[in-house]
């Protein structure tokens, strides 16, 4: 399944290369919301909240009223998780907060699970150079994505795995790295990071893996005219 991504920064839709360089900015957020309204799942990431530079919760609330979406970015506390769910999100995506002192923070994961329910939690596990990375992909941890997934599986309903090495580069993703995560858990897996073509989406779908796509959609490389 293709899951379009809406990344928000400063009240606009953006696409960043490797999480840093701005490649695309569109202030007309709802031009994209309406394009995605027939998709059964849409991913919304509040980059300002993730980076600690602001908050797009009011805009998330408007988007969530129009789309069936999963929302991430800056979910570091149970209160924030609840606020995002109350805004209308179907699920929350938690990432860096699930790690502490170089390893999965199972105490917080358990508290979050008890507070909002496992079925509403997607655990984001991102890797670069074979290691889990957090804090906007700037801090590398001494564990692999597969190790993190195995530890966090009891506390979430799904994993979002981003292969940071290929993120935003429009050169395709790393299917073998995604499969390592897939093999490490019985939970549903969604993959992101450089997915560019319909063939990649179809190949992942055949493996039971959903595909989050951003840059390929916003550049027009991936044609959505016949979708979903």
Would you write up a description of this structure?
With 228 residues, this protein is of the alpha/beta class. It has a single domain (2-218), classed as TIM Barrel (Alpha-Beta Barrel). 31% of the residues lie in helices and 29% in strands. The chain has 9 helices and 14 strands. It has helices at residues 29-35, 47-51, 57-64, 78-86, 106-116, 145-152, 175-183, 198-206, 215-218; strands at 2-9, 12-17, 21-26, 42-46, 69-72, 91-94, 99-100, 103-104, 121-128, 131-134, 139-140, 158-163, 188-192, 209-213. It has an 8-stranded parallel barrel, surrounded by 6 helices. A two-stranded antiparallel sheet has the order 7-8. A hairpin with a 2-residue loop joins strand 1 (2-9) and strand 2 (12-17). The longest helix is centred in the middle third of the chain and has 11 residues, at 106-116. It is globular and about 40 Å long. The model has no long low-confidence stretch (mean pLDDT 94).
| CATH-derived architecture | Alpha-Beta Barrel
Helix content: 25-40%
Counting DSSP H or I runs of 4 or more residues, the number of helices is 9
Largest sheet: 8 strands, parallel, barrel
- Fourth-tier CATH superfamily name: Aldolase class I
Poorly predicted regions are none
Radius of gyration: 16 Å
Structural class: alpha/beta
CATH fold field value:
TIM Barrel
Overall body shape = globular
How many extended strands? 14
CATH class: Alpha Beta
Straight-line N-to-C gap: 9 Å
Estimate nothing, just give the exact number of structural domains: 1
């Amino acid at each position: 399944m293709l899951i379009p991504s809406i990344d928000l920064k400063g009240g606009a839709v953006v696409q960043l290369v490797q999480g840093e360089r701005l490649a695309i900015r569109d202030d007309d957020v709802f031009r994209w919301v309406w394009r995605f309204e027939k998709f059964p799942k849409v991913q919304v990431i509040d980059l300002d909240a993730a980076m600690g530079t602001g908050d797009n919760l009011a805009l998330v609330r408007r988007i969530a009223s129009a789309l069936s979406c999963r929302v991430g970015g800056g979910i570091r506390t149970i209160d924030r998780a609840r606020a995002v769910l109350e805004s209308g999100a179907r699920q929350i995506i938690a990432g860096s907060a699930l790690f502490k002192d170089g390893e999965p923070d199972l105490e917080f994961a358990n508290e979050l699970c008890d507070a909002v329910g496992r079925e509403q939690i997607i655990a984001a596990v991102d890797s670069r150079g074979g290691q889990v990375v957090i804090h906007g992909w700037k801090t590398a941890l001494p564990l692999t994505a597969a190790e993190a997934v195995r530890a966090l599986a009891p506390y979430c309903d799904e994993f979002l795995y981003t292969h940071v090495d290929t993120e935003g580069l429009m050169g395709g993703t790393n299917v073998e790295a995604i499969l390592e995560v897939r093999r490490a858990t019985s939970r549903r897996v969604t993959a992101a990071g450089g997915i560019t073509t319909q063939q990649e989406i179809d190949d992942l779908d055949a493996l039971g893996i959903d595909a989050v796509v951003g840059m390929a959609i916003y550049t027009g490389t991936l044609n959505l005219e016949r979708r979903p």
